[in-house]
Fold this protein.
Amino acid sequence: MTKPKAKKKSKSEESKSDDLKGKGTGKGNTTAIATTTTITTTTSAKSSSEKDKATAPTANDSTGLPPIDYIGYESEHQLQGMISLIENDLSEPYSIYTYRYFLHQWPKLSFLAMDREKDKCVGVIVCRLDIHGSARSNRGYIAMLAVSKEYRKRRIGSTLVLMAIEAMKQAGADEIVLETEYTNQSAIALYQQMGFIKDKRLYRYYLNGVDAFRLKLFCKPEIGPIS
Ligand SMILES: CC(C)(COP(=O)(O)OP(=O)(O)OC[C@H]1O[C@@H](n2cnc3c(N)ncnc32)[C@H](O)[C@@H]1OP(=O)(O)O)[C@@H](O)C(=O)NCCC(=O)NCCS
């Protein structure tokens, strides 16, 4: 679903994706992760195992970078900051209903990176988890990911993705998917670093005629051959 600002996709095209058809039944609501934990870092966390504030760097470490707090979505008071960021960095003029569709049903699967000093949202990830296909797999879906331009290359994006993966795994995800423009090298590199593979190329997926890649992460170990 997510793509960089320069690219446009119509709402009708949005419906191309199985993952946008709103067929969630609410099964994704039962996520288990505690998202109220705040991760604080000035160098940005490398993995979800760093979800312990006590072990995170403090604001006074040697990096000189403003400290970033990673928090779970809590309520609509955070929504304006999220929308401003996403509207800056992603082309999609999502309606308020799109945000609410994800955030109200799967509040535990969305995370924000906050510049603590400015109390400003500088990174966001929005996800979903529901039953997919005839195999009835538990499919996580990363719908939106964006990091404010001046905060990029500090591992904020990868930290948000790791938090979302962890939350979806804890909620029982068998696999996690997303779409991105096939030319979006930074997003593809980020996701591949985390174990995502290119699953499908979606021909002319976006309104501008650009193809998308569907990237997929398998969350469960494969079942071995029956002996
Ligand atoms: C994609 C995006 C979220 C990355 O956020 P970020 O915080 O800068 O990413 P990170 O610092 O965590 O980078 C992690 C990895 O991603 C890759 N990456 C990030 N930016 C990159 C760039 N400009 N060029 C190439 N690779 C890049 C690298 O592999 C990087 O690992 P490295 O630092 O070891 O080289 C950010 O560039 C963004 O918001 N882009 C616009 C919106 C968008 O494209 N969203 C994704 C749609 S699916």
About this structure: The CA atoms of residues 72 and 111 lie 4 Å apart. Helices lie at 11-14, 79-89, 96-105, 156-170, 185-193.
